[in-house]
Structures
1.
Amino acid sequence: MNMICESENINDYLLEMNEVNYSHPKIKEKVSELFHEYQSDIEKAKVAFEYVRDEISHSWDIQSKRVTCYASEVLQLKEGICYAKSHLLASLLRSQGIPTGFCYQRLMLFDTPEKGYCIHALNAIFLKSVNKWIRIDARGNKEGVNAQFSIEEERLAFTVNEELGEKDYPIIYSKPHPKTLIVLEEHTDALEMYKHYLPESL
């Protein structure tokens, strides 16, 4: 898939914002644990990806009602849905000067179209050392989901089935999509939010 940058200014993919608050003391503390000056951008990206994928629980997987949004909050509570986890991964990588954006897929919410669709969030990162954008999905692995860090071929959590109404959106957004932020802001029960209120399209 040909990805399209929402902004032509690469610095827009390094900005700090409410959800990507990498100046927060909690984020700074984790940054000092994960990274050191001798790591390449690829090594830093892999370390951050695997940390968010493996150490931050997906709310649905652990059946938690807690809704998280800001990167610092996701880190402190160690849980969130894919939207929240993408905020944390962006925060960690932007703190290291690695341009990081937000990408989305339209997926079946469960196992059939009749059960509805949802927007799923993942990240795209620009690696200067190989001069290209790659997509990575730190949603969290489980049975049937095996996302890995790869600069050669995408190894995402989900493969879209266009025949069933799923799709990949090609845009690399510099900010989280407003539809994803609204749903996190408006709900206090992550399980109900996940089952009934996630946006179905962008």
2.
Amino acid sequence: MPTTDLALPGWAIPAQSRAIAVAQHTISIRTQWWNHAITSRGLPGTPPAGDRLSRAEVWSAADDVFTLLWRALAWGSGHYLRNNTRRLDSIREKRSPIEDVLTEARELSRHNPAAAYTLLRPVRRNVIPWLGPAFFTKFLYFAGGGAPEHPCLILDSVVAMALRDHAGWKSLPTGNWSAQTYQRYCDLLARWARRHGRAPDELERALFRGRPKDLTFPAA
């Protein structure tokens, strides 16, 4: 089905301001683990501080690719650290080329979602081992530094399932997306956002949060 035929569910139109619903979207993190894991491997960048991390705090690291990556990973992981040891080990082994890739991906994220995605996952293979789409799209999103018009958005299984179950995108996989599918997703949310006078990440946040229980909304 073309994305032009899809419908944003009414409950995914945010009621709160972006400053509250998005910028203050805060996750509890395992700060001590990240500090030790990063410093003990001699990795560059600054580990996240504090036991909670908001989107705004991740945005603020957009000028340093490694600090940005650590914050995006910590925010995305919360208290669940599955695969992060392997991710950090793989980065330590090829730190210099990975820094180059992250720097280029950050720049591409600001104007070309498909190219940024392809750089990190060409031909369904992750360039950085153990850093797959659900996490590297967080990096691409946060690389925008909080700019409302930033074209790259987070895409994970929760958002994908919301689009499948409530917006009619039945063919959307719940993982391992192609670069073309990622671009279609970003374009779709940008189009919906313009229609409703919102920023695209406000819709992503609402889709991730899910439909409020015991409430029924018409499609928008």
3.
Amino acid sequence: MSRRALRLLLSIVMLIAASLGGVLATAGTAQADGCYTWSRTLSAGASGADVTQLQIRVAGYPGSGGVLAIDGAYGPATTAAVKRFQSAYGLAADGIAGPATFSKIYALQDDDCTPAHFSYAELNTCNSTWSGGAVSATTAKSNALRTMWKLEALRHALGDEPIRVTSGFRSHACNDAVGGASGSRHLYGDAADLGAGPHSLCRLAQQARNHGFNGILGPGYPGHNDHTHVDHRSGRFWSAPSCGI
């Protein structure tokens, strides 16, 4: 049995156990995961590294125009994001991250913590080291992981059809080679360019507004008629005039 199939089987068992109201319904989770394992149920008022790990995975569910802070504090915004994540996957939307929620996350992620439908290689075709950008290699790779989880939420909202990433992290050399802007968010590892596929560029730009991206550039914005760009800049800047954005 493959690792993903085993993880899916374990997730189903956990969901059944949780629904029956047994011990697992109040303990965090006894399941070990190759990426990260939560050891307690999390809810409003909790704080710590385990909250941060949860926030990374539900950051694609902040609500329209919202951006979830990855700060390790389980406040109202995190509670709301967890509820949206739970609702999106057919779980009881109580805003409490327990066995059922963690089991769904385990089923969605690979052992390197990337979500099921995206990979580090997909977010970095520039080099293998994540170096040479505007931030350290560690930060660039971490930023890319956060981008991928938001893209996973976007993908799920669009019917779980593929999303094609055409550009992710760039070193200064790679950015210069493609004529990127000097302050491009690609240099920070927190940007992704999306190509048309099952969904039009405008559909991608429009839906991205619901999944925590501060930067959205698409058709009608100079240089963006052949892709939709999403990123995590500090302030909101959305512009895709041809798409009504």
4.
Amino acid sequence: MPAARESLLDAAFAALARRPWPRVKMSEVAAAAGVSRQTLYNEFGSKEGLARALVRREADAYLCGVERALSGVSGAAAPGERLAAAAVWTVRSAAENPLVRAVLTGCWNERLPTSVRAAPLRSPGSSGSPGPSGPLPAPGELLGEARDRAVRLLEGDWPSGAVELPLACEAVARLALSYVVAPAPAADVARMVRTVLA
């Protein structure tokens, strides 16, 4: 029932945009998605299960956006420009999506589903990423995952003699996070990344 699941998550996200999570009703989410309340409970088990799946989906969408930025429009962009694009995506994504901002910073406010605060990104003994309702990343883990993806996607293109790639990716990730915590125009972070990598 993947279509119903996505519809329910979309409806939950829309409801969260209108009112604080504690005031979001499961019946309104189900109605907005065009399914029964029982279908909602069958899919997520509880309101907390719905919240966890919603936060996980938004975190995964953030990481997909990081990968798109790092891949470049045509793949021909210089690695530093691709890192700058990933930093801009981080700042914009956190500014536009309160769930991404909360997961990146650990700052959950009363409007958000605070019962789903961070747990380890991967379960002990598991391999790979958890499913959409699996454990949520702790502050720093989501940014660390973005950094690791940057290293993996840029390693073949990174210029020799430049600063060490993992160090550059870590610096850019932390720089982007500073712009999330102390907001400034997204274009400023790109300019700062270019300056740091020059």
